[in-house]
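Students often ask what a holo structure prediction actually looks like on paper. The answer is less mysterious than it sounds. You provide the chain, you provide the ligand, and the output is a string of discrete structure tokens encoding the 3D arrangement of the protein together with magnesium ion.
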Amino acid sequence: MYDAPMANDAPPPVANFIRTIITEDLRAGKRTRVVTRFPPEPNGYLHIGHAKSICLNFGLAREFGGVCHLRFDDTNPTTEDVEYVDSIQTDVRWLGFDWGANLFYASDYFERLYEYAMQLIKDGKAYVDSLSADEIRAHRGTLTEPGRDSPYRSRSVEESLDLFTRMRAGEFADGTHVLRAKIDMASPNLTLRDPTLYRIRHASHHRTGDRWCIYPLYDFTHCLSDATEGITHSICTLEFENNRPLYDWVLDQLPVPCHPQQIEFARLNLTYTVMSKRKLLKLVEGGYVTGWDDPRMPTISGMRRRGYTPEALRDFCEKIGVAKRDSTVDVAMLEHSIREDLNARAPRVMAVLRPLRVVLENYPDGQVEEIEAVNNPEDAAAGTRMLPFSRVLYVERDDFREEPPPKFFRLAPGREVRLRYAYIIKCVGVVKDASGEVVELRCTYDAETRSGSPASTRKVKATLHWVSAPHAIDAEVRLYDRLFTVEDPEAGKDGADYLALLNPGALERVTGTKLEPSLAGVAPGARYQFERQGYFCVDPDSRAGALVFNRTVSLRDTWAKIEQAGAGRR
Ligand code: ATP
Ligand code: MG
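The corresponding structure tokens follow.
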């Protein structure tokens, strides 16, 4: 049984057509329980699109008191790898789901699938074809023209049985024969024009080794694996809609224990990224990113490293809903879910990304005050911490302009600002290096203005974050932007030129960032809000003395603005 990780934090389920189907099936007695499955092919790491499928399949099982299986659809030995098998399990667990004892591999069914194939041949419903792949394609016809029968279609059952047995025994080279279902070469549905069920592939499989040199194809494997496991609702993406008649045909020909119902839904697409594993693999292999878990990637492992939370991803998947028509979701909506979650629970800290030294001329040398700072204004239980304040500080370089433009209210010569939780300071001079760059600000502080003190009533137009220079610790921060420069990098012909659309500014590494001292001992995975700079997460590369943070997301929520505008219009 699988316990309910989302019991406390999940929003109430939104109605969708799959819930409606399942509810009706249970009510009508067509099904007595709900068994779903998530069936990844282990040929890459999971991405956010898979997260949608995982949340849907595991979520429905939980909701209806059923179970959800994790099944590896591992029928293609040349593209699959145990590295992917392992990463997929890690990612599903991290998302908060548990398959319990229900971990399956299609490769475990190879013997049984072979027996089913033999049965089809015996029943005259499958035959060994000896045309080449090109010839089979040429015989297939088009949407407007029927296909043509292969000359081998009329082969006797005995001959096909003999050939198929010898295919298994390894007597033939790759590509010399295939096993095809005998359905209808004139069917308006091209998937039903005698689809290939088995092909010869002399390749080692990551689980079955060299035991097999023939491998079943997806359309044959998937439905029979579902039936074998007693799946009730086989939920897949829309591109399999045309395959549904074949799914049903195979199950109707064979003495299977049950006949699951295939239901299709629209796959998730996100703006500014690609979602096909083939394309993501190219980014990894071509060195365009540092790996599958590069925080720029739309993979679950990349998002985890970047600091996204499983709660936020589940919330996003619930919010986008389940549709029957393909669409593309604005990545700003995903980021909105991330911000909402992190806003509620990420402790606030002060970090100066690009530091500019400030010397408070009238602050006693050697004096250190402890200043109380709120850990999370959204969470009273998070309490407060003490920050050291001293004569030499850092503020953000961007927060100073020697010649401030209109509406710039932060530091400038002669200007006053408040340092968060501390004092109002005034810029009384600047120090420049030989090249004319400002390297230090000379300021004074107003001792009467300490935050929280009764005398502190004076208002200024800007409040800046800061850290005390002698107490600060150094870090590297990695700032991220969209992976691609355009909303739909796959819009080009076959998405072929997507590599040319990669955003060269998607990663910016900033070294010499100054952090408040409370961050000295942070461990990878810890998440914070750096005040005014966004949410950050400690990277696995981080070491004591050489801290590395990833910016998960900035604070500016463009989605909230879109939503508000929408609400305004309604
Ligand atoms: P890709 O196109 O990235 O190669 P795939 O569909 O080939 O993906 P699988 O490993 O076969 O990858 O996918 C496992 C499950 O996840 C399938 O049921 C598939 O329908 C679902 N899935 C894959 N991509 C998406 C997506 N973008 N949105 C929703 N579900 C998806
Ligand atoms: Mg697939």
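The chain has three domains: 17-105+219-336, 111-217, 351-471.
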